[in-house]
Structure formats: C-alpha cells, structure tokens
Specification:
Layout (H helix, E strand, L loop, with lengths): L3 E2 L2 H23 L4 E7 L3 H16 L3 E7 L5 H13 L5 E4 L9 H5 L13 H8 L8 H14 L6 E5 L6 H10 L3 E5 L6 H6 L3 E4 L17 E4 L3 E3 L6 E3 L4 H4 L5 E2 L7 H19 L11
Parallel strand pairs: 1-11, 2-3, 2-4, 5-6, 5-7, 7-8, 8-11
Antiparallel strand pairs: 9-10
The structure holds guanine.
Guanine binds next to strand 4 and helix 6.
Length: 296
Amino acid sequence: MTAKTIDGKAFAAEVRAKVAEHVARLKEEHGITPGLAVVLVGEDPASQVYVRSKGKQTVEVGMASFEHKLPAETEEADLVALIDQLNADPEVHGILVQLPLPSHLNEDLVINRIDPAKDVDGFHISNVGRLATGQKAMVPCTPLGCLMLLREELGSLSGRDAVVIGRSNIVGKPMAQLLLGDSCTVTIAHSRTKDLAEVVRRADIVVAAVGRPEMVPGDWLKPGATVIDVGINRVPGDKKPRLVGDVEFASAREVAGAITPVPGGVGPMTIACLLANTITACCRANGLIEPEGLTA
Ligand code: GUN
C-alpha cells in the first residue's frame, strides 16, 4: 500500500482563503481591519525570510501588517517598550516576536510581556496554562496546523493512540496537549525514550518534531498510521542541499496510511495558522463570534 500524501500546501491555501473571507466581513460589517505586528531583532537570515513571508501573506489576506526591525544590539528595555506600545495599540490584534532572540535578551521575559490576548504565537505562560487546562487559549501555530491536518484527514481523533516525538515548548508539548484535548491517548517520546521503534509502532498517529533528518524509518510505523512530519532539515544533495523531514519519506509511505511530505506538508500550515490566530484574536478583542474551523 502506498500512503496518501497529505497536501499541506493546498490545505494552507484553503485556510488562508477562509481567513481572507473573514477579514473582508470584519471590514465590511464592523469597519475593523485585523492587524498583525511582527518584531524582528537582528539579522538572522532564516528569520528574515520567515518575517518577509509572514508580512507578505498578512497583506494578501487583507490584514494590516506592521513590521518592526530592530538592530541586534537592541537593549531589553527598548524591546519591552516597543511591546508595551503594541499592546496598547488598538490597530494591532496580534503580536509576534520572531525567535530566536539575540542571546543577551531574555526570551521568557520578552514573550511574557506580550498581552496574552494578542499573543498569536501562543507562547505566553498564560496561554500555555490555558491550553493545558482546557481553557480558551491562543494556540501555537505549528501544532495547530498539525491538528487541522489530522482532523481533515481522520475526522474525529477520539480514542486514537498518538505519539509525539519531541518535547519542545513550541511544538511537542502543545501538540500533545491538543491531541489530549481531542481525546487521543498520547505518548510524548524524546531522545531518552527507550525502544522508540516499539513506542512508535503502537501509534495510529505519529507527529515527528525532533529536527533529526529521516530519523523515523518506515518499519517503525504501524501499517495505516497517519504521519505528520514537522521536521525541516537541510542535508547535502547531489548538486545543492535538499530538505528532508524527521521521517524517512520513501520507506514510510510504503507503510503509512497518510503522510505529510517535506516540503509542502506542515510548513505552509504554520503561517496560515498565524493568520487564523490573528483573526481569532481580533474577534475576541471585539466581542465578535470567532470563525469556525480556525481554532482548536
Ligand atoms: N522561530 C521559529 N519558529 C517560530 C515561531 O513559530 N514563532 C516565532 N515567534 N518564532 C519562531
């Protein structure tokens, strides 16, 4: 059996279209333009690419995009002052501080300075706690994107065995919380897990988010499993570097029921979910009903 390839690029386009529709409605019926502020400190090339892409897609769905680029040597007090200003700005409904920050800045302090209602990354400690306790939260974008793909593919996730490989605050832990919220039986595996192959073989759903190229081979998978590959790893290729996931795609697709490719799987969902979160934050800020299907 060859697995279905889950087209994250196409699904992300559907999410963006839904967001654009809601943006138009908010403008027309309420005179509100949702706004997203992105803060970039320093000149990290990968971060610059992400920020440019976020700004472009924000404008494409009709939202206002506010970009703040600060020099690498920016002092913490100045960054905090900018966040305070964005927190108080009624035209800004979402705030994202691109990570990683230069090492002299305290990431936890900076993230926790963001108004939790505008924390479209879902990284503020209050949103982390809300997600963990089943309260309405802003949910981190990549795990939200994975959840949307899983629901689209499988319908109800209730009672399914899920394994999340990776325990990061950005993906692994919130992913596990979301799966638990959808009534999966969840295992979080990591670098110290004993007999990972055996753990993975039990799972109906595998979410791989470790950042190790092609670490999960097909023979670890339960036949028919749904595999969500969050990894984006650059490895040497014949002529130029190529991107691979945390799952060995060629062998995995011979065993899995459905699998996300790299690129074109989870990647495009992240920014689409950032836009979805911005709409959600804007609706909540204005006491309006949130669009369906764009939240956890
Ligand atoms: N850097 C890499 N991924 C992310 C993300 O999802 N949000 C932020 N703010 N920074 C990142």
